[in-house]
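Model the whole thing, not chain by chain.
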Amino acid sequence: MTELAFYGIDAIHLKQRDELLPGRLVVIEGTDGVGRSTQITLLRPWLESSGYAVVDTEMTRSVLAGAGLKQAKEGHTLGPITLNLYYATDFVDRFESQILPALRAGFIVLTDRYIYSLMARAIVRGADPRWIRSIYGLALKPDAVFYLKVGLDDLIPRVLQRGGFDYWESGMDMRLGADLFESFVNYQTLLLEQFELMTREYGFQVIDAGLPVDQLSDQLKQRILPLLPHG
Amino acid sequence: METYGSHSFPGRLFVVEGVDGSGKSTQIALLRQWLISEGYTVFFSEWNSSPLVKKTTSKGKKKQLLTPTTFSLIHATDFADRTEHDIIAPLKAGAIVLADRYIYTAFARDVARNVDRQWVRELYQFAVKPTVAFYYRVPLEVSLSRILTGRNELKYYESGMDLGLSSDPYESFKLFQERIVSEYEKMIDEFGLTVMDATLPIPEQQRRMRKIIRPYLQGVRRMRGPAKETAWAGLAREMRPSLTDAQGRSA
């Protein structure tokens, strides 16, 4: 059962409706290129073969705002506050139309990032921390947050191997350096600092992202197992 | 990030608020013409006009994908784009910015949809506090008759059908508007809205509006001197074209 607990105002009025959420909400967090989606790809069949129904969700996949957000990011007029709120719209649409119904139906919801990445990115882009926290305060506290932690030195070769530095993952909208690489280093350093700050505040379970894929997966499975219904 | 009340710009921001059919758009159009004739640089910004968000909003409305919370968020996103482009930049440049509907529209509508009052206020913390926010107050019978005359269709969200107040769109619209008015009334003190009597003749309303605004224009840079006519001389002429579209329009 996912508890009806929130970081801020329960703006969707879940408590008022006495919602029952027999599912589980499991979050995989971490910065860009750290291997989150690989892990989710491994967790899903493992859970399913144990008889659990699984739903996975990730950013910019909302029916409402996904396409519009992607299109807005391709232009050159998207300001930081608008970007943050577009992501918030995308998140809340997924929260209300994918995550909540799945939790109501008893699914295991695996989410590739949650409000933490969104808040970290917003704060790095100059958003008032109180403001962005109050918006995402409507989100449910997950049953577990696994933070795949990586140092910048280990992150760089991963990102290179995966095809190089991406405009947004390098924070090039803020031009934090003379070129893509320098901006990437500065942007990711700021993001990792935010994750570090949030680790204690939000009780992340930290997992070393430098582990080989199968070992990392084993660690996640070990920690997820006791959270499962009849686990 | 600057938050509500903390911005400081050389320009001025005047906004009009009120229910559909209160005549606020007519008033701000008249004000705009006057300010331009007085030689000011005027920038006009309308509710729901961001090119980045337009498609998403209309998709949400057409397919009825919007919950009260995502309805609130998509409008906040739209407003953020306007704030970043149409409001902050011109205000920094020393222009007079006029806004037809502002954050108070969102507060009234969203809370009428049962969105948490405090949450939606936090959501709009990035907004610039207006120099003056006018609230055009009108009895519901008057605004309803202005809006509903000649309209044969009310849209789903416009009439608040998503709230399930009534299965009849007209009845639902009335109930929804009632809730909106009650939210506006509560905001008068909370945000120091300047209440205007929207039942007065249009030129009289305009005279009052200009009188209130005049002191705030001191020190605002003009592109050129005022046009030769005295302030009110052009009023009758200015009004003619706007009167024709003053009714039956909604945001």
